[in-house]
Model the fold of this input.
Amino acid sequence: MTQTALGTWIEDVVVGTGAEVQPGSQVTVEFTGWFPDGREFDSGVFSFVAGVGQVIVGFDDAVMNMRVGGVRKAVLPPQLAYGSRGTPDGTIPPNATLVFEIEVTDVQ
Done:
């Protein structure tokens, strides 16, 4: 894995060949999220605008420069995820490191 300038650890599983994610891109992803011990906490499909704060910082960081068809594994340290507070519903505890597998399915 390599570390981004912000501190997200990333590894390309599949390098995509389609349109590239840039700040301001409308991105659709399929994802699964786990805790480091392998427990899954979420999965699904959703769309967001990259680089404008619609998702947690580490997720935004992880998808930058991916291309449609690409699959990336990302490890987000707590400060790039939900930090010392976790999520209000308790799904993500405070100071949790998160692991994602992200596939970019569309970029506009």
Observations:
- Helices lie at 57-63.
- The longest strand covers residues 40-49.
- The chain has one domain: 2-107.
